[in-house]
Structures are given as C-alpha cells and as structure tokens.
Amino acid sequence: MARTWTVGELADELRVTTRTLRFYEAEGLITPQRAGANRVYSQREHARLRLILRGRRFGMTLSECREIVDMYDGAESSEQRQLQILLARLDEIAADLRARQADLRRTLTEVTDVAAQCRARLDELV
Amino acid sequence: MARTWTVGELADELRVTTRTLRFYEAEGLITPQRAGANRVYSQREHARLRLILRGRRFGMTLSECREIVDMYDGAESSEQRQLQILLARLDEIAADLRARQADLRRTLTEVTDVAAQCRARLDELV
DNA sequence: GTCGTACTTGACGTTTACGTCAACGTAAGG
DNA sequence: CCTTACGTTGACGTAAACGTCAAGTACGAC
Question: Which of A4, A35, A69, A96 yields a CA-CA distance of 20 to 30 A from B69?
Fold first, then answer.
C-alpha cells in the first residue's frame, strides 16, 4: 500500500498551510483524490509539491512552477513533436538555471568578501 | 568626472521602468541626488540597484534586498558591536546562499535527467 | 449526546511590487 | 510660438499568493 496524506498531514510535513494546498489545487497545480469530500494526497502530489515549493524558493511564479512539474509528466509522452518541443524548453530552463548558478556564485563571493572586510576591521580594532 | 544617469537612462540600462526606480526610492532603497527637481543617479545608486535587482531575481523581497545592500555600507562602520552583529548576519546569509546552491544543483540535475529521458524516448521513436 | 478535532466550501481581506493614468513643469528643436 | 521629449508628484488600479474568517459536515472520545 502506497503512503497517502490528509491535507493537514501533508501541510505539516511540507511546512505550508492547508490553505496553500487548497489554493494550489484550485490553480490546477495538484489534483488529489477524494475520500468522500476529503482530499487524499498520494506520492504523486507529494513529489509535485516538493518541486513546486522548490521553484517558489527560487522566486518562480506558480505558473512557471506548473510548467515545470507538468513537464515531468510530458516526458513520457509518445508524440515526437511534443517531445521535441518539451526538450527544447527543458534546454532553455537548464540554461537559465546555469545562469542563476553563476549569479549565485558571484553573490556568494561578494558576501564573503564583505564578511572578510568586516573581520579585517574587527582585527584592527583589537 | 564620475558618470551619472537620469531616471530614463538608468531604467533603460537596468531594464526596469522609471516607475520602479521611483518606487525603490520611495521605499528608501536608493537615495539619488537632485539637479533641481530631477533625479541624478551616481555610481553608488547604480551599484546598489544591481545588487537589489539580483536579489529580486532570486526571489528576495525588497526589504530583504534592503538589508543586504545596507550591509555593504555597514562594513565600513567602526563600532565593534555593530561589526560583530553584521558579521554574524553575513555568515547566516552565506550559509543560506550555499544551501540555495545545493538546491539549485539538484534542480539542474533533475532537469537534465528529464531531458535525457526525453532524448531517449525520441531515439526509440526513430 | 455533545465535545473536540479535522475536514469542507466560499467569500472577502491583505501584502508586495509595481502599472497606469492625470496634471503639470522644462528644455531643445523647427 | 508650438510641439516633442523627458522629467516631476500624486492617486488609484492590479496581479499574485496566500491569510482569515464564516458556516457547515463528519467522526471518534468521553
């Protein structure tokens, strides 16, 4: 039996509110099953949500997040044309991520430089 | 003579609108000089803005951006207590950035994996 | 049987980060 | 002198991403 979650459980685990999970559903980012009226989240939703939340941490909008998670499904498509479009988009995204990496590296260098300056100033004051 | 910019020039160069620059000023993120009523942006503002916009690309809020750019000024402070606080905060930020790097690396790996899957599927279809 | 807890939908509120007028001043060009 | 281009402030609008009630349902514990 695969693990499932209620809203509350999943919200707790992912450190978001239940409101957020319902909102994401209303936006079509996730589509949990139902047990009567209650939502039942499966591994699939769990995985998608982790991707979405990671995207959000990088400042992506929800629709950008949606685009990405939807691609994970699309990769099993069998239509050549679809796959080609998908692949092109994935390469774009990868390029963007690499640019961000470089950007992040620069930022980190700058921050550590300022910290080093700070330490130098502190040493002078001794 | 150090280079200066008008709102329009700087907005064009940084690829934002003049509205954005005025908004940032209203929020206290930058404080351009004036030539009469007109704003005059110097290297200082130019540098701060580049930092701010980079922060924004990483999903930071404007107040988080403000905190960071203000630190670059604070590093020249001469009060020991101030410097220690600043340094502690900088180390926190650096740690956060490193976490983001790892996160970004994972994301990139996943994206390239999906792309590889795609390519495999495409090869099968030949 | 009612108390507490967790779930439901729906509606409205809120913050952030600007966009979009409106109404006006000013300096250069034809 | 008039237009055009750029600048100014001020006020209001807006999209995104939730927060915050309200009102109701369902279920196990006591």
Answer: A96
Residue A102: its pLDDT value, please?
Answer: 94
Chain D nucleotides close to protein (CB under 7 A) are 6-9, 16-20, 26-27
The 3-state secondary structure of B95-111, one letter per residue: HHHHHHHHHHHHHHHHH
B1-60 has which fold? Answer: Multidrug-efflux Transporter Regulator; Chain: A; Domain 2 (1.10.1660)
Structure tokens at A4: 């499932």
Which fold, A1-76? Multidrug-efflux Transporter Regulator; Chain: A; Domain 2 (1.10.1660)
Closest residue, chain A, to B78 (C-alpha): A121
Closest CA to A53 of A76, A69, A75, A34: A69
Determine, for residues A108 and B86 on separate chains, whether the beta-carbon distance falls below 8 Å: no
Any bridge partners for residue B38, and if so which? B35
Longest dimension (CA), chain A: 70
Cβ-contact B103, A57 below 8 angstroms? yes
* Interface membership of A95 toward B (CB under 8 Å): no
Percent of chain B with pLDDT over 70: 99
The distance (Å) linking the CA of B38 with the C1' of D8 is 7
Predicted pLDDT at B79:
87
Q: How far: A45 CA to D23 C1' (Å)?
A: 29
